[in-house]
Every structure is written in structure tokens, then in C-alpha cells.
Amino acid sequence: MKLDPREYPKRRRQLMQLMSPNSIAIIPSAPVTVRNRDVEHPFRQDSDFYYLSGFAEEHAVLVLIPGREHGEYVLFCQEKIKEQEIWTGRRVGPEAAPQVLGCDDAFPISDIDDILPGLIEGKDRIYASLGVSPEFDRQLMQWVNHIKAQVRNGATPPHEFSALDHLLHDIRLIKSPAEVALMQRACDISAEAHTRAMQMVKPGMYEYELDAELMRTFMAAGSRWPAYPSIVGTGDNACILHYTHNNAEIKDGDLILIDAGCELDYYASDITRTFPANGKFSAPQRQLYQLVLDANYAAIAQVKAGNHWNQPHEAAVRVLTEGLVKLGLLQGDVDELIEALAFRQFYMHKTGHWLGMDVHDVGEYRIDGEWRILEEGMVMTIEPGLYIAPDDETVDAQWRGIGIRIEDDVVVTKTGCQVLTSKVVKDIDAIEALMAG
Fold first, then answer.
1. Is 387 noted as a catalytic residue in this protein?
2. Nearest Cα to 390, choosing from 402, 376, 382?
3. Which of 70, 152, 242, 393 is catalytic?
4. Are 79 and 95 in contact (CB under 8 A)?
5. Distance between alpha carbon 393 and the CA centroid of its chain, in Å?
6. Best CA proximity match to 54, nearest among 104, 109, 116, 11
7. Mean pLDDT value across the chain
């Protein structure tokens, strides 16, 4: 499944409408990263670059120049050189780029030092994501210094740099219907992968066997890779928030926490489910799991246009704190415990984050010091959890080493919210029924 290509020119127009008069935006592709010696990591395009272009090749630079007489969208990309394409794959090339990608002009990336300073010259402002790539920052300053060196000949260098992120990331935060549809498909694939893991698990297996099944399901459905390294934590490994070793044996009586989601055409999904290795929750596991599930539902209920970003977290914290007091893991007045952040002993992260092309997607959480108001089209995760350290002697031994997280992906709608990850079960009875076959 691919995004409708008509989305890209809409995005470029939207960004250029926000740019100041007589300005230019310059966005480089992602760098190629070496894994070891002469082996490179699989290339993944920079999200901002792809968001505006739909172009997945490396060694490219996208330039937007609002009001330019000869066309506002300029692309620098690799030339089509047959000898190189034999080794590294087919390229679009500058000649075909206008027809294939919709740019107004395309030039070889090898000519950028000769051409781009001329496009920058005379502009008042440059929009760029400074500080992301030191190499690109140096290159950008070389182009500007080249113009400065020609001032006596009448050249006019830009006098202001502005953060491209400030404009572009607010655009990216609000998803179009086409984006939501693509994210729904990514979530459906990931839901199938989590379901398969629940169905196939048996004590005696290893975490990496479930990891392999996740990847197989992702790729069989058209996703080329996960949106982030999958977490498959059995037993007290689930208490390590970003556990990715995935090499431990799964034991009878363990809970297994899987945090995994596929990426589909550059859009992420992000799901966490926790389930018993033998198909049945023990009594302590059941009590803590139900508490996290209640917090999950309470937080989702607060995802609606007009509420602020932190309301789902506040709802989850209250449910968790009240439950921890009832179970005896915390003692005291609930309001005072929340004020003192006592819950952080067992719940040390926020209840969610923005989701989109990046799994921890762009967008401000506060504006002018206040929590951001939720709007239709925003997509976020809801992921309360409880993690009782195996060596925490402040609690009864029955709770120790239990880690639980339940994570869903949710889009804000006109009337409330839509849970994109509803196709994978999370209620206790539904999990046990699924695992019983």
C-alpha cells in the first residue's frame, strides 16, 4: 500500500504558503550510514525529505523557492550512470525526475556547488534543519560564504536562517485521511503479527523466535522492516523499557511483553501487548494486568478534540495510583501520592507520544508553556504500564519481576477518537481464549 502521490504537491504548497516572502528552503536526504567496515545499513530516507517528495534515493537535496519564475520545486539527485546502477540499483536521474517526481527542475547532485549558491543569492531567509547534520551545516555555510565573497560584485547573501522544523513539523502533526488510511493498514499488519505471536508461543521457546514471527508477518504483508527494534521481553526482561536483546528462554509462568510495529511506506505503527507464556494469567499477573488495562481505557476516553495533550496521562496516572493503593503497593492518600509522583516507582514514562512517519513523531507537546490542545487528525499512542523490579523489596514478593504495558495507536476524530489497533485483543478473557486456540 502506497500513499496517494497527489499528497506530495499539496504538502509542498502548504509549506511554501507558510514561508516568508523571498525565502528558500533546503532539505537534504538522509546520510548513508556504515554498519561495519564496507557494509552499509539499509538506507531509510529522511522523514522530512520523503514527506515533501516521496523520493527514496540517497545523495539528494530538495529545494523549495516560493514564487520562482522558472518553477518553485528544484531537486538535486544522482545521475543515471549504468556502471553504478549495476552495483547499487536503478536511479530516477535528473532527466526523468520532473515527470516522475513532479519537480520543476532537476540537476545532478555533483553540480550542486555550482548551482545552489545562485538559487540562494538574493534571498532574505534560508529555512533549514540546522543542527541535525553537522556535515550538511558545513556545506550550507560554504554556499552562503561563497555568496558573501561576491558582495563587492553586487551579490546579496541571505541575512537570516530559520528553523524549517517550526513550520514543517506542525504540518506533519496533522494527518490527512490518506495518511490515516495508510497508518490503519500498518496497524492491521502489526495486529496480525501480535496475534500470531500469542497463538504460537510455548514455554521453552526463545524470545527471538517470536521476534522472527513478527518480522515474517510484517514482510509477508508488504512491510519491509519494523518501525523500530522490536521488544520481546519475557519474565523480568519486561521491566526493561527498551529491552531488545530478545535472546532469553521463555519459561512457564512468565508474562511476555511485546512492543513491536511495522513501517509501511514510511508510516509507523506501535503496539504493545502483554500475555502469559502458558496461556493463563496467574492471580497477581491478572490483578496488575487488569489495572493497566483499566488505565488504558481511561486514557483513550480522554483522547478527543478540545482536550489537551496531558489529559490521557493524567487519567492513566489516577487509575494506576488508585489501583496500586488498593493492591497495597502504595500507601497513602491518592491525591497526595499523585502530587508526590509516587507512581513513578512502578510507572516511569508518559502515557503516549505522537505517531506518524517517525515512531516518536514530530510536533510540539506544549505551546507557550501550555499543553497542546488535541485536534482532528493528530495520531498518538496510549501506553500505560507497570514495571515491578525483580529486586524491589518494598513490595510483596508475588509482584516482583512483573512488567506490563498495553499500547494502542489512536487518531483524534471530529467526535472523539478511533483506535487503529483494535484488531489485536487486549482483554484478559479474549487473550486467554485466543491462546487456547
1. yes
2. 402
3. 242
4. no
5. 36
6. 11
7. 98
Q: Residues in the chain, how many? A: 437
Q: Which amino acid is at 283?
A: A
Q: Is 372 a catalytic residue?
A: no
The three grid cell numbers given for residue 47, joined into one nine-digit string: 522523514
The one-character DSSP state at 305 is: B
The rounded distance, in Å, linking the Cα atoms of 26 and 342 is 46
Residue 1: pLDDT band (50, 70, 90) is confident
Residue 209: active-site member: no
**Prediction pTM value:** 0.97
Query: What is the residue whose three cell numbers read 534560508?
Result: 126
Backbone angles phi, psi at 83, to 5 degrees: -65, -35
- Tell me whether residue 259 is one of the annotated catalytic residues: yes
Helices (H) and strands (E) in the chain, counts: 13, 21
DSSP strands (E only) in 149-278: 160-163, 225-226, 231-234, 255-260, 262-264, 267-268, 271-276
Name the nearest CA neighbour of 137 among 167, 163, 111. 163
**Grid cell in block for residue 211:** 521476534
Measured CA to CA, the distance from residue 295 to residue 320 in angstroms comes to 6
Does the annotation mark 270 as catalytic? yes
C-alpha cell belonging to residue 275: 500475555
Residue 361: active-site member: no
Tell me: the pLDDT tens digits for 91-145? 999 999 999 999 999 999 999 999 999 999 999 999 999 999 999 999 999 999 9
How far is it, in rounded angstroms, from Cα 404 to Cα 238?
7
